[in-house]
Amino acid sequence: MRCPYCAEEANRVIDSRLGRDGTEIRRRRECLECERRFTTRERLEESLPKIVKHDERREEYSREKLTQSILRACPKRPISINTIERLVDRLERRLQETGEKEIASRVVGERVMEELTALDAMAAARFASVFSNFQSVDDYQRFFESVGEGQATHKGDGQPPE
Fold first, then answer.
1. Which domain holds residue 28?
2. Strand segments (E) across 9-148
3. Whole-angstrom distance, CA of residue 160 vs CA of residue 134
4. Are both 101 and 57 inside the same structural domain?
5. CB 77 within 8 A of CB 83
6. Mind listing the pLDDT tens digit for each residue in 10-66?
7. Alpha-carbon gap, residue 28 to 16, rounded angstroms
8. How far apart are CA 52 and CA 59, in angstroms?
9. Per the structure, how many domains does the chain have?
């Protein structure tokens, strides 16, 4: 492991602990050259299917790309980054459980929609507007009708989101 500050390879592990539901190991390290500390995370390399886009292109699954698309749907919503990380963990687990070598991006998007709808209807609507290519107010109206009036309000306080 190279030091991110001086690129030296010599370092020592100061502390190791399990992180994120036991799916990764967090290691605190100290560079033996510059003596600065940094954190590394080790995760089991998982076999995830390739993503088949609507135009039949195939792409490697990218956790970062999926996380960023969800984050873009969640600004100014009461959703923590930890909640999003757990959502992505669940999605990855479901993708692995299929055992498929390829999966359509549409299927992944639908699963994200299910998760977001249960979490926050406004974030789900933002995601749906891009995923489903909303063209008019009617598209939003149909979306909110499909999730129901009860889920269109912010969970917990019964008030509509700001």
1. 11-43
2. 11-19, 24-31, 37-43, 50-52, 58-59, 102-104
3. 22
4. yes
5. no
6. 999 999 998 767 778 999 999 999 999 999 988 776 678 999 999 999 999 999 999
7. 6
8. 7
9. 2
